[in-house]
Amino acid sequence: MSDRVMREVIATAARLDIMVLNMKKKCSGRNLRTVIALITPVLFGFGPCGPIAGTSLTGEVKSDVIADFRFVDDVESCALEVNGDDPHSVNINCWTVGKQLFVGCSDCEGKTWSSLVAEDSMARVKIGETLYPVKVSRMSDPGAIDRIWRYRWEKYKEGELEAVPDGFWIYHLGSKPPARG
Hints:
This protein is of the alpha+beta class and 181 residues long. The chain has helices at residues 3-26, 29-44, 112-119, 142-156; strands at 60-61, 78-82, 88-92, 94-97, 100-105, 122-127, 130-138, 169-175. Strands 1, 2, 3, 4, 5, 6, 7 and 8 form an eight-stranded mixed sheet that branches.
């Protein structure tokens, strides 16, 4: 997780802590639980929040096939929604190699989203406020993975460039016309 995302999670937790303390002064225990249950979706929405998975993503759906994803280099991260029948979404690092879009997954074996995308490769990626239908393909060529990893490092610059960590999977996201809403 990037330092920026971690700072946002910590800041959100601190704001929630202050809100809960203020509500404790004004509400009984039962009322407090009700208030927290009602405000949580307002604070976090139903999409992913930091490392916490969400459900269906919202935003304008771009139905055109995207031939050049280089605009993704202007955002810190993307959100990926998989399993169209019962959406599951995650925040994820995203970067380009040339005009092609890639995402990565640390310790990916057994994660919910990677298991779901193995069953159904159609997904949607949210870049900024726009959703793009994509086909997700796990990369398997070691040479290509090493090259793509270097481009990821160029964008995020997390320490010294090292070999791709064990358990880190890289996926190519190819633009597809929308098959579902």
